[in-house]
Specification:
The complex is a heterodimer.
Chain A lengths: L1 E3 L4 E3 L4 E3 L7 E3 L14 E5 L3 H8 L5 E4 L5 E3 L2 E7 L7 E7 L2 E5 L21 E6 L11 H17 L3 E5 L5 H7 L8 E3 L1 H13 L7 E2 L13 E4 L7 H4 L4 E6 L6 H7 L3 E3 L7 H11 L3 E7 L1 H12 L2 E4 L17 H7 L2
Parallel strand pairs in A: 3-4, 4-5, 5-6, 10-11, 11-18, 12-15, 12-16, 13-14, 13-15, 16-17, 18-19
Antiparallel strand pairs in A: 1-2, 2-3, 7-8, 8-9, 9-10
Chain B lengths: L1 H11 L4 H14 L2 H11 L10 H12 L3 H11 L2 H8 L11 H10 L5 H12 L4 H12 L8 H12 L3 H8 L10 H6 L14 E5 L13 E7 L2 E8 L2 E6 L15 H4 L4 E11 L2 E2 L2 H9 L5 H6 L2 E11 L2 E2 L5 H18 L5 E3 L8 H9 L6 E8 L7 E11 L3 E12 L8 E10 L2 E8 L5 H13 L1 E5 L2 E4 L4 E6 L1 E4 L7 E4 L2 E5 L11 H10 L1
Parallel strand pairs in B: 1-11, 7-9
Antiparallel strand pairs in B: 2-10, 3-4, 3-5, 5-6, 5-7, 7-8, 10-11, 12-13, 12-16, 12-17, 13-14, 15-16, 17-20, 18-19
Helix pairs in contact in B: 1-2, 2-10, 5-6, 6-9, 10-11
Classes of the chains: A alpha/beta, B alpha+beta.
The complex binds zinc ion (ZN) (2 copies).
The site of one zinc ion has 7 residues of chain A, from loops.
Chain lengths: 344, 532
Amino acid sequence: MLSFDDNGIYCKQANVYIDPWKPVDKAIITHAHSDHARWGMKHYLAVHNTIPVLRYRLGQDISIQGVDYGELFEMNGVRISLHPAGHIWGSAQVRLEYKSEVWVVSGDYKLQNDHISTPFELVPCHHFITESTFGLPIYNFPDVDTVHDDINAWWRQNKEEGKNSVILAYALGKAQRVINKLDVSIGDIYTHGAVDNINKLYEQQIGKLPLAKRIDASINTKDIQGAMIIAPPSADNTPWLKKLSPYKLAICSGWMQLRGARRRRGADRGFIMSDHCDWAQLNTAVKATGAENIYVTHGYKSIYAKWLQTEYGLNATEVETLYTGEQVEGETDITKEQQADEGI
Amino acid sequence: MKAFSELFTRIDQTTSTNEKIDALVHYFSIADDKDIAWCVALLTHKRPKRTVRSGELRDWSVEMSNIPQWLLEESYHIVGDLAETITLLLPKNSLHNDYRLHSIIDALIDLDGKDEAERKAYILNMWRQLNGTELFVFNKLITGGFRMGVSDKIVIKALAKFYDIHENIVAHRIIGKWDARHTSVKELLAQTDVNDDISRPYPFYLAYALDTPVDELGAVSNWQIERKYDGIRGQLIVRDNQLFVWSRGEDLMTDKFIEFHPLADVLPNGTVIDGEILPMKNGEVLPFHVMQTRIGRKNVTKKALQEAPLMMICYDLLEENGEDIREQPMQVRRKRLETLLEETGKLHNHLPLVLSPIVECHSWVQVADERLRSRELNCEGLMLKLKSSTYKTGRRRGEWWKWKVDPYSVDGVLIYAQRGHGRRANLYTDFTFAVWDGEELVPFTKAYSGLTDKELLQVDAWIKKNTLDKFGPVRSVIPELVFELGFEGINPSPRHKSGVALRFPRILRWRQDKTAKEANTKDDLLELLNVQ
Ligand SMILES: [Zn+2]
Ligand SMILES: [Zn+2]
């Protein structure tokens, strides 16, 4: 029912694309990360509470329709519904059913409960499209609460040493996840403008976050002491960041599982915190869907597909897409225009 | 092991030299003598003999983590470090025991000569009891190559601080041969003279590349200016009528340099000379590759001795009549070096020692001109040494500078890319470049470093979209991107299709202004070879 063409993942019967990377007429968007939600579609469809972010990133004037999780709608006989993916708040998997054949496009997903996203819902299917960002057995993510405890302990320690704590986390999803569990009794929380913009949308759509002050012209950076600052990865090595000295720098990402990844970034600390599945989660999800046909997209595609074929006897194939996985290096969070806005 | 793992973590989590020193000092204050000895030994590259092969580690870890062998290999390729890969693959343990660092190393050393079953039983038993950093450290102890982001200089500073001994003395005592299993660091540092190990060299003093405008260095007359030779930096030691030749990598290479053997009877006992070993004929320096072929050989043939006779160009005198004179100013040491060579030269002909000539200059302009002559003299550039400088240890700024000539450069076309190891596991960062041979592109070098992180990302994205073919970890790409590559030298190489091999190639910049057609040709490279 679905095929992969130059524009993206395509359903011919419904004449709709899912997360296309080139302009098309109709697009269902799994979530608002910029490698999945791109410009130029005539018409978008997404979960209600992700619409404000899509408008913020793609323009207020886009034509967009919202649906609820689980709400069933039809497109030329194809029964379609969106289900929680647990990746970031508002992220969805897309279920398509036609003539009793069921496909699920999972977009980006994780099984860990991050306490800000609606948890992943298992959707049984015949054909399952999965990412493989961390599709290697070396990736075993630690328990979520332990990581939050580690972050708070690190902040406390830095404060005692008279230093600020800076965490680089992408603005949509990770930043809210980190802030949500910060221990406000330790000190003040500040945010980079790009993070604050998304925080405001989160608070409108989902719920309250601990109080965090936006670093703008009204703030004297000299007053920021022993504080926690949340900034997007693009703020690294900028004059904006230098003004917060002395500080310790940490990165929150699944890539931090590898020593080399952290050292390359020159961060003091790497917290292993991801919005994607680790090895065990991937295997659990793939098996639980009951799907016989697995399409492996962005990540360690060929390795993971081979594993599914040889270990589970599944019909697994790798699919070339333009999705980029978990960003630490580059920046999918901020547009050029926004960077200009923030003066970074 | 717990304390040592904590030390490892603390050092790993900071980039500050002072914090690293503090972490070491703290460790010295809580660990016992035997653990301290091994800690210092490991950090200064003295490893216990390896008793478990990496093939065995692979087999056993695959068995224990219940994954196929190919998946371990794929994982290893991404991680880039076997010890880390195994640590990440092994199942988590609930069991936990604490071991002492030295008892683990002793146990590993004792595995030597034991049969496979016994060695396997020991390793698996340990794997069942260790987790996280401790497991990683344990695996690193087996595989060796223990690097903690700590330079010798940091270890020396920490020891000097903890034991309250001058850094220069610490540096001298911990360099060279000593056995961590039977030596305590406290005793090693407390030794009153150096006679216990007569082969022991002094730590080398290294210069940074000049990074300030040369005319900001003050009066030329304050500086001793010499040529920077392109050979093997070494220390020549005569003590007790015995000769020792050390390379900068702290390898004892006495056997390689037959020419120097007579010096044992010629130089006074208690002489240490710092200099550059290189091939010279009729007073002229020969290109570096002439020596390379000779050093590579196991036995030195008569022919090799004739074709590439080695000499030492003497830079500095560190020990005179058994006295450490490193704290004397450069100009004093230089005078004494001149006297020594003159006196011995009077008594013996054809010594393989030459005084490094001083380049007399009266202005920085003149210095700059002299630098430009470097290549025709087979030199890399100039050395600038403050006449008042003492002989320090390790790489230091301020008093010694190297001022190299600009590297050669050539424009090459990117044709193959491979994913980086470890640090760059997810990016295509290892590149192969080609030049034109008629209508054909022939590969001539690989290069890794030189691009900014941002450029690496751009190139990585481009590679993924412009792949022609994949074989294993390598992709061939559309020949389109041009890069300017810098290198320090060029040697003939029949093994390469291009006929040349570059020394220290690196990427200078991405020539986005050039098309593939505008890249250099094989003839251009061969031309450089001739110029040299
Ligand atoms: Zn995403
Ligand atoms: Zn994605």
